[in-house]
Amino acid sequence: xxxxxxxxxxxxxxxxxxxxxxxxxxxxxxxxxxxxxxxxxxxxxxxxxxxxxxxxxxxxxxxxxxxxxxxxxxxxxxxxxxxxxxxxxxxxxxxxxxxxxxxxxxxxxxxxxxxxxxxxxxxxxxxxxxxxxxxxxxxxxxxxxxxxxxxxxxxxxxxxxxxxxxxxxxxxxxxxxxxxxxxxxxxxxxxxxxxxxxxxxxxxxxxxxxxx
Length: 212
Description:
disordered N terminus, Small_GTPase, GTP binding, alpha/beta, Rossmann fold, eight-stranded mixed beta sheet, 8 helices, 8 strands, GTPase activity
C-alpha cells in the first residue's frame, strides 16, 4: 500500500463520493480483494455490477481468473480496489488470496451444494491468507425470494451457521436488482479503515439477510 489507513478522514459522509479524479489527488491506497466460490454462482455478475459494465470490460482475465479495478474517492482519499475473482478452480486461490485485505466467499442461494462448498473454499484460502476479513455472500436473492418460505428459512439458517463458523459477516445479494452489492464494499471499507458507518442486521425471512 502506498498510504497508511490513518490518512483517511472519518467524517460522517465518507461514502458520499463516487469515482475519484485521478488528476486532483496524489495518494492512492490500493486494496486487494478476493472473490471465491463455485462455478456459475454469479461472481462475475456481482463484480461487474459493482465496478460498472464499462470498467468491467476494461478488466482482464486469464484461465480461471478475472481481475477488475475500481477507484473511489472517500473523503478526499483515493482508494483503488483490485478485485480478483477465482472462476471456480481452487488451484488459483494462492494468486487471488495472497495479500488480500478481504475475501468474499460466495454461493448461489438457490443451490445448497454451492453453500456446502464454502467451508472448503475457506479452508483452502486461509492457507494463503490468515488475516483478510471474511465475508459470506449469497447471490441471486431475486430467484431465492421466489422459493417457498420454509426452503428460504432452511437455507438462511444454514448460511447463518456457516457465517458464524467462519467468523464472517453474511449478506444476501442480487446483482440483477443491485441488492446489497455496494453495501458489501462499503462494509469492507468501513471495517478496514475503522470508519463511522453502521451496518443494520436484517434477519427477516423473505428479505435480504444481513447478519454479523
